[in-house]
Amino acid sequence: MKKIFVFIACLLLLSCTKSMQDDFICCECSKPPTGKLAWDYPVKPGMEEWKQFQSNEEMVRACQIPENILSSLSTEDLTAICLQYPLLSDVFAFNFLSMGAYKLFNDFNGIRELFKRKEASTELLKHYNCLMQAFEKKSFIPVWHLEFLIGFYTQKTDILSKEDYKKMLQSLLFGHEKEIVHYDPDFSYPYPYNFYARANVINKISPKSLEPYTYNGNSVIAYNKEAMDIINELSYKLTK
After folding, report:
1. How many separate domains does the chain show?
2. What is the DSSP secondary-structure string of the chain?
3. In which band, very low, low, confident or very high, does the pLDDT at 11 lie, cut at 50, 70 and 90?
4. Which structural domain, as residue segments, surrounds residue 202?
């Protein structure tokens, strides 16, 4: 587990570059990414203004979407904007994904608004499916962002049907199969974000099936070999 987070920490240095962020702007696989947003962050990493910030709190304040714009954004546009959030990689800075999720949800008004919308699952999957069709090793950071958001969205909302959750699980299982090709055998288990997302989706489809693998009866799934095996088994079973 420690090796995983050391590896992630090294990759974070790349996560705020424009070329990497541009991989996100892909709403339909039949269309090339345009890189255009309905609204863009006025201050971003690389700008002189960003370099002047003295704290994470200042960065967070600079990244808020004005309320009059936020309410008028389509879910498609809002999803693209959230995927470009300059501090999205903050979720990787914690030992537990739940802590990163809590910070993201409390820090960013764009995510709070996105998670109110049922269509968010469709938009997140559009981006994810597009990215996974052309997946290669350099795509891990944007893939992890999307898997984290899909899992977190699933955990925070109860507005989807079982059929919606099944579609999410099918996409994540497809992603898992592509990622495993690039899996580094030096790690004890594959990267945790796809596992986290599938566990949360399975918990919506068949919650009792995961009860033996939770911490103290809550919704946090233990990340170990036994839990990984059952998540893989249930993923194939529930997508048939």
Report:
1. 1
2. -HHHHHHHHHHGGGTTSHHHHHTT--S-TTS------SS--SS-TTSHHHHT--SHHHHHHHTPPPHHHHTT--HHHHHHHHHT-TTGGGGGGSSSHHHHHHHHHHH-HHHHHHTT-TTHHHHHHHHHHHHHHT--GGGHHHHHHHHHHHHHHHHH-----HHHHHHHHHHHHHHHHHHGGG--TTSSSS-HHHHHHHHHHHHHH-GGGGGGGBSTTSSPBP-SHHHHHHHHHHHHHHT-
3. very low
4. 2-11+19-238
